[in-house]
Task: structure prediction
Amino acid sequence: MQDPIRIVLAKIGFDGHDRGLKVVARLLRDAGFEVIYLGLRQTTDAVVAVAEQEDADAIGLSIHNGGHLTLAPRMVAAVAERELGVPVIVGGIVPDRDIQALLDAGVAAVLGPGTSGADVVAVVRSTVAPE
Amino acid sequence: MSLRSLTVDELLDQASKGDRRAIGRLLTLVERGGEAADQVAKLTHPDAGQAHVVGITGAPGAGKSTLTGRLAAGLAAAGHRVAVVAIDPSSPLNGGAILGDRIRMDEPIQTTEGADPSNVFIRSMATRGQSGGLAVAVPGAVRLFDALGFDPVIVETVGVGQIEVDITAATDTTVVVVTPGWGDAVQANKAGLLEVADIFVVNKAERPGASDARRDLELMLDLGGHPAWRPPILMTTAVDNVGIDDVSAAISTHLGHLRESGEIEARRAVRARSEVATRLHAILLARVDETMATPEGQQVLADLNDGVVAPVEAAHRLSNDV
Result:
């Protein structure tokens, strides 16, 4: 049997809107994922440290404070620096015009407002390379 | 460099040099089970047996994770390398899980003065179908941490009810966490979880009813005669870091008691036996499935469906082939 996909979900820094992240955690749980839920006020270093210990297959960030162009590339860089080799997926409020910039910075996928539950699951699954 | 291409030997070599990614990877192999997990078990066995293995158990929401985080932070500040295995339930419907224990642990460890976060390793684990409060991979994970020099190794169970006592067979010291209002004197004397406690913690002790909870536990213990070790009852408010040092001290006192009384060997023998039994059960279960799939097994099942034999006869006819 295949291992369940393990994903770390977090919000970075000063951003108190965690409702969306909780909804995503539940969606992924119901799709058979093991969700390591970190919630609010994390740092990129803390998330990387957790991903190492948990041998996570992916990292999901929820960003609602407009900091996505700063925080997401920082997360990607932290993952690269520790050679974790896991995809970083960004959800939350990201204007359409910023999506390409995030993808260019190495973000694996951007899940904006209105993404269906089925799409969340399918996109996360598709970013995780089969072992 | 991808760790996924490394052999178990190479991973263990990296892990013993402190590579946390390699430790994380090895734990995944242990959780997956099968050949690689068996190899990890064999290779880590000779170096294991040094660590004090501590179980933290109690009802959902009692404060097990917060207490565990505080304990780990305090122990790290005192110079220990601490490992934590934190277990949460898998869905019986789809296998998914929300592993939300470490959300209570990372912050105390990051903010406690003198606690180096790199001396604490926390792994969240889903039960993946196991009942009893633990995950199948717990003994293997404990052995890996033990062999890598982590001491103590703390195992936090899922939130349990009255009879999930597997933790006692997996650890040296069992800490049972209750909260004010958890039950009365009758509850306290019911068989099950409370019987296996080595240490009681009344957490959320700032709330009304804490002294009642303490009294009911004391009375329950009074009725138990005079055992060599009477479980202490400690009051904590883990979220505010109140009473944690007492718990830490009691855990280490209990270890002293286990060593002096020789009970540690007895407990570890039970642990080893229980792991062998679990593995034997798994092997037998696989053989049962194999036997049912043989032509003979199929014939017996056909006879059963035709009403020629009863289930009990069918089982007897096949039992010698298992």
User: Anything to note?
Assistant: Chain B touches chain A at residues 1-2, 4, 20-21, 23-25, 27-28, 31-32, 90-91, 94-100, 102-103, 106, 110, 117, 121-124, 126, 128 (CB under 8 Å). Residues 1-46 of chain B form one domain.
